[in-house]
Amino acid sequence: MSTTKKLWVGLAALLIASFGAMLWLGSELYRSKPPVPDRVVTTGGAALYTKADIETGRQVWQSIGGQQLGSIWGHGALVAPDWSADWIHREVEARTELMARATEGVPASALTPEESAALNARIRREFRTNTYDAKTGDLVVSDQRAMAMSAVAAHYMSLFSNDPATHDLRETYAMRENTVPDEAHRRALTAFIFWTAWAASTDRPEKSGVTYTNNWPYDPEIGNTPTPSAFMWSMFSILFLIAGVGLLTWHYAAYHGKEDAPIPPARDPMLGLVITPSMKATAKYFWIVIALFLVQILLGATTAHFQVEGQEAYGFKIAEYLPYSLTRSWHTQLAVLWIATAWLGTGLYIAPAISGHEPKFQRLGVNFLFVCLLVIVVGAFAGQWFAVMQKMGLANNFWFGHQGWEYVDIGRFWQAFLFIGLLLWLFLVGRALWPALRRKDEMSSIVGLMFLSTVAIGLFYGAGLMWGEKTHISVVEYWRWWVVHLWVEGFFEVFAVAVLSFLFVKLGLIRGKTATNNVLFATIIYLTGGVLGMFHHLYFAGTTTAAVALGASFSALEVVPLAIIGLEAHETWRHSRAVPWMARYRWPIMFFLAVSFWNLVGAGLFGFLINTPIALYYMQGLNLTPLHGHTALFGVYGMLGIGLMLFCLRGLKGNALWHTGTLKAAFWAFNVGLTLMAVLTLLPLGTLQLQAALEHGYWYARSAEFMGKPIIDVLVWMRMPGDLIFSIGALLLAWFVLRHWILPKADPAFDRTSDEDIQRTLDRGTV
Questions:
Q1: Which alpha helices (DSSP H) does 71-142 contain, by range?
Q2: CA pseudo-torsion sign 152, 389, 419, 432
Q3: What is the pLDDT of residues 7-29, one digit of tens each?
Q4: Of 760, 688, 698, residue with least CA distance to 718
Q5: What is the pLDDT of residues 710-719, one digit of tens each?
Q6: Is the dihedral of CA 686, 631, 71, 226 positive or negative?
Q7: Three-class SS of residue 404?
């Protein structure tokens, strides 16, 4: 059996085993998820909440932005508190005060240390004891605890209204006035928040000492401390990482570079590429990439500014028109949308280039898909505005408004529409690739892998349709990460590797057989950790110890291929300098080099910083999470999208002069701006939050008291230099694309394609 066939068999076995394990653990999650009680009642028989109240409260939470306004179980936005942790702390305080006055006749602040310790022990037992009766469906609480719950609920009733008493807190949390105008909806919202806090503070019936969220959030007052499995699997994950890096390094040293590199052609092979009508039609995709990118940056700056002024922007009451939860929703979604659009456009451009075949009505399909994407963006964003502004109503919110789940929070109608659009993209790319798939040559495996990744991209977004409006939130989290982790971080990664390898083979810089084996091996390495590594997102989302074990083991392996990323970068750089005509592709390749760097730093270093169970236990939902998110999402996928876009633009107008000064400035502005954002704000702010969580509990690291400190304001303002430099880079890139397309200048030197002509053009500095 040839090496290529062995790699295909290995990839197939890996995918079968990985998805089998994922589906098994998913079935376990369905079985062990935290129960939603039919009623919450007191020992005296008074009903506090019903299941309908909890479900309605979740609908309300979703309609105001859900995970875009504070977080639940650590998933979501970072300015407002984590509502689960906040409720637990406030209820403990209220319960302590009530018990101190009832038993000792004094306020809690007047208790002796011994009295306080005894009181805390009683409260801890009360919180940790699971009083849910599966037979009756009732969750029973004491009459005294019900009084504490009532006090906390009153606080939230005030906070989500326009009560002047909690105005300052709303401003600190970047909440608009009257976030939930309807009083009945506010009461239902308190039922949902209570339930999330109860699940995070009550022992599982089958495992004493472990809550439904594996003892997250950290709160020693109720005994929420790391579980033994968090320590054990963190240790094993580090061992897996060391072993994986060692094995991959040995493989690289033993097998890499044993074959002589091909002699590059004297002329650019891509100059002979025939640009078909459908390939020309992809240009508009790259225009929309630039437009969405610029809007995303503007919304990101607005979202960041909310952390300073809360409800205003330099005196303008912006929260009344564009609340924080809305600008953050659009900012996070646009990040995925413009990157995905760049990759979709690349697929539509490169498929006919690979096969040399232009199917009938292909251009019509490309144009129709473009219109569909515009309709989806405008419709989905408009629906979210009506939802967050509470102008839509709960009945229509799930389908046309705001689902509340970070990165997949557009209404279900628009979500299904986007899925259909991706299936159309799959059809268009597949029919254009079909002749190349039927050919049996050294490129067939790369083309096959590219097609399979296209199929996966089209189909796996469908995981976002696997939950309904009232599906348990643990189950929603499970399927949500199929989309966010597998779709974005998994199969788009494979698609990108296959496309880049094809381009280098097409340029004559790598042998087809070598590229095929490298791509298959890289895909196996990426997906070994990438598929089951998804579970590191689910440590504390109502799953069992098995999720901790699998997530810790395989998320560590996600870092393994990044350990030798510098060697891959060197190979890419060597290719870029192989022959003078490669200077035409210098800046697309420079963006690919940046992908290698940020893969190592953003995805590797900052990713592993938070991915072990014990680390994420303390860091989930702190600013060390967006440290990884920003540097990985833009640094890897954004840079890759820009590089692919530039490669396509180079081909669409092959004879046009490139004003490389503009691209050079944009490239370095992106990298310097992203570095400053990470080093000056996200890293120190996240580190301070981590220290606060370790000293006082997780609730404190997300509290208004901590986030309102002067040092936090200084660190937030320190984002401005990096953000400004980054924004200048985006404007320069936009100007380059506009100038290249609207006001191109032809360079006749490239028509002759001799090395001497190219060198003369290089001397003029316009390549």
A1: 83-103, 113-128
A2: negative
A3: 889 989 988 998 998 899 888 88
A4: 688
A5: 999 899 999 9
A6: negative
A7: coil
